Amino acid sequence: TDTLAADVQAWVTQLELRDAILAGHSMGGVSAMAFAGLHPDVAAEHLRSLVLVATLAYPEPLFGLPDVQVDPARVVGLLERIMSFETLGLLSIRRVFGTYPTRTALEATRSSLIATDRQTRIDAMRMLRDFDLRPVLSDIALPTVVLAGTHDQLTPLAGNETIAELIPGARLEVLPGMGHMLMFEAPDQVADAIVQAAKPSDA
Hints:
Blueprint lengths: L1 H13 L5 E6 L1 H12 L1 H7 E7 L18 H12 L2 H8 L9 H13 L2 H13 L3 H4 L6 E6 L7 H10 L4 E5 L6 H4 L1 H12 L5
Parallel strand pairs: 1-2, 2-3, 3-4
Helix pairs in contact: 1-2, 2-3, 4-7
């Protein structure tokens, strides 16, 4: 999370962003929270608000399964083999969606997984086992909205509720029947949250 925070800090400072909206989905949300929580003064200087979409601030059990310590490299290798078979891959991806995913959304998600660098996935899985951003969430001094689906099994609603409770003044929007891939499942709601975050506070 220190690296993610430093990456975002380098990005917003080198581009000299001002009054920006930082929106992050899943690991992108982790990156946004790490930056805003670990570097609150820099975040306040460059950002107007945060939009956190289906994310997490501490390790949560995947799909309700118990926490079993396995080698991330083996898990990623198995995932690669599953994704190499189109039908099996799409059926597996189905679990990260909510009630009614489209085939186009399933295919796009499978393609993005296949395209992601293998070592990046391994490193991310290792980080997600033992990180905890809860101690710094209260230091985030930006208007924040948290979007979460009731059927999200990767970043469950309860964890998003905790994020909204710990960030001062944060607002939680719960999307019934939706899963983890909210930008595919509820694009209008995600876009609206970003648009609303860009409006002046008195609008």
